[in-house]
Amino acid sequence: MFDLGWQEFMLIAFVAVVVVGPRDLPRVVRSVSTYIRKARSVAREFQNSLEEVAREAELDDLRKEAKSISGGNLEKKMNEWVDPSGETQKEMERIASQAKDVASSRPVDSPAEDKPDASPEPAAEQPPAAEEKPKPETKSAEKSAAAGQ
């Protein structure tokens, strides 16, 4: 705060001893330290209040920005942020139109889907599945199974 070196401090102490006297010096030092503590406390409170005002000002800016976003067209703002050139939007519209074209060219009534064949083909007979031996889950079970065979 005050850039005091040891020479300045010694000069202040010498002047204090001469002016106040050695008998009253401890009382004066105590009262001066009390005032210094109070001044530091006031300065700390002032600094905290300034920081709070700065935070509130920043929050006010954020509130204004949020209100401008919510008050306006949110979709338009998002498109401006995400796709400023509009290329992605054009590509999405092109894909959607192609999907509509494909869907409109497909026949609506498909006889294969609506009516099953009158004579279904017989299912090919599958050979019976070979019985599987249960697999041991641990190494000790594998060892005991190998020893048992």
TrEMBL record:
GO CC, alphabetical: TAT protein transport complex
Compartments it resides in: Cell membrane; Membrane
Keywords, alphabetical: Cell membrane, Membrane, Protein transport, Translocation, Transmembrane, Transmembrane helix, Transport
Compositional bias ranges of the Basic and acidic residues kind: 130-142
Domain of life of the native organism: Bacteria
Chain intervals with Low complexity compositional bias: 120-129
Keyword presence, Transmembrane helix: yes
Gene Ontology biological process terms, A to Z: protein transport by the Tat complex
Topology relative to the membrane: Single-pass membrane protein
Primary location group: membrane
One of the Pfam families matching this protein, by short name: TatA_B_E
InterPro entries, per the entry: TatA/B/E, TatB
Region called Disordered, residue ranges: 66-149
Single Gene Ontology MF annotation: protein transmembrane transporter activity
Known partners and oligomeric status: The Tat system comprises two distinct complexes: a TatABC complex, containing multiple copies of TatA, TatB and TatC subunits, and a separate TatA complex, containing only TatA subunits. Substrates initially bind to the TatABC complex, which probably triggers association of the separate TatA complex to form the active translocon.
NCBIfam families, A to Z: tatB
Function, in words: Part of the twin-arginine translocation (Tat) system that transports large folded proteins containing a characteristic twin-arginine motif in their signal peptide across membranes. Together with TatC, TatB is part of a receptor directly interacting with Tat signal peptides. TatB may form an oligomeric binding site that transiently accommodates folded Tat precursor proteins before their translocation.
HAMAP family from the UniProt entry: TatB (MF_00237)
Family: Belongs to the TatB family.
Name the record gives this protein: Sec-independent protein translocase protein TatB
Native source species: Nisaea acidiphila
Classification of source organism: Bacteria, Pseudomonadati, Pseudomonadota, Alphaproteobacteria, Rhodospirillales
